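Example 3.
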Amino acid sequence: MPARLNIGKLVVIGTGLIGGSFALALKRARAVRRVVGVGRTRRNLAAALKLRIIDEASQDPARAVRDADLVLLAMPVGQMAAVMSAIAPHLPPHAVVTDAGSTKSDVIACARRFLGGHLARFVPGHPIAGTENSGAEAAFAGLFRERNVILVPLRETTAVATRLVRRAWEICGARVVKLDAAEHDAILAGVSHLPHIVAYALVNVLARRPNAPRLFGLSAGGLRDTVRIAGSSPEMWSDICVANRDALLAALEDYENELEQMRAAIEGADAAELKRMFAQARNAREKWLVKKRR
Amino acid sequence: MPARLNIGKLVVIGTGLIGGSFALALKRARAVRRVVGVGRTRRNLAAALKLRIIDEASQDPARAVRDADLVLLAMPVGQMAAVMSAIAPHLPPHAVVTDAGSTKSDVIACARRFLGGHLARFVPGHPIAGTENSGAEAAFAGLFRERNVILVPLRETTAVATRLVRRAWEICGARVVKLDAAEHDAILAGVSHLPHIVAYALVNVLARRPNAPRLFGLSAGGLRDTVRIAGSSPEMWSDICVANRDALLAALEDYENELEQMRAAIEGADAAELKRMFAQARNAREKWLVKKRR
């Protein structure tokens, strides 16, 4: 059991799937007294209020953080610079700030630029959770249960701040793992950012065919699962791809090389070589799934 | 309700996921009296017998088809030539032969070469169903329920033979759709064969990284679903890729071009262009899913 937590005012900037689920989980555990949600659109904030994800809505992050105890930055990473520079002059000294951005090197660079005076209380983080749905309506308290949350504390971050954020995620049911920013970004480029590119690209080539409706009509579970994440937020994912550009380009290059090898084997009608490559993939996947189940 | 069917002896060559599920569904509907399973390995045949998927096992297709009423060829497509040439001299004149091969042009070419005297009773087919598991143990009677089965009758195929095969699949719970072989192969290259390549290649590039165990450990549902079909049979899928080479290479080229466009946008940090491409994919996927639910 994680230690009890008593957060007076939580400010969630970006009350979508991640921010909303974080707020719901902490509320359900009675670990927070009041949640203020900050967002860009009235529609989503109204939904978050109605669903009791937040107690109060605001479109002004600077105003909202004035008496905050914990601030979660859960907007698309492309908005980090604007939000950090807006809130920095208004953060109370004791307030702990964390984020849920899918990339870490760029968020940290952004924090060093705009959150300078507050780095001791900034705990970069990334919950490895989500669904293909977005917005407050998609939020649910159980989203982080048994999921990994990666924390990437800076050398300036105090142990007290890190401990608070770790506790909050543990109360949400998550496992907390510490990584450095470069390793985080390389791993996520592989297991998350590249798969999104792969899925979006696959849907696009099929949708462009003249017989696309018939084609999708004849598809089965294989395609459906392979492209499930092509339902993810285009804005969030275009930001992530740009923010994690270098690691993603490296992963994409490896992937394109692998495809080229498979293409060569298909061209050469080399069933034995294809079978070898496919068996390698199947074995790796099975080993991974067995470990996951343990 | 499909019309009743009374098949005396069904011979299933390849008693794996597809052949086994076909046998189970027809048995459950009491549409068949006796099922003979033909396979290459005693282990799989023993499992099929134990699970009562088949009533009798044989490793000799020529012998097994001698008094058959319906023969389903459900081995990997790479074995079509060998099996067709083995059974052709022994098929009783009235026996209807169909197949479950994932490619149609090459199976038809094979039939024209090896099944020549029997084309009037040959009904090329393809059930669009499957899971990432293979073998008799993976078979279940409900596999084809509400799935599409594509039939590609030849100009030589009699209406009686087509009707029998159609009824059998309808009894399994499937919807039967007729297509010509070229359209079938182009569609399947897109919705099935290319996604398998995509998934196998993705697992391989990740598994090759030195920190692969940690990386897979930090992955979530997105990767898991995207690569589910990388668990599929390497032998079956290498055969399919070679058999449907031309259509698959065309689909793969489109896919690589799409990836290149995404790569260019990432390199140029062009979030707007990425967002446009991702939104296109998300919209196409949503349109498709809405139609599926209807």
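Residues 17 and 138 of chain A are 5 Å apart (CA to CA). Residues 181-207 of chain A form the longest helix (27 residues).
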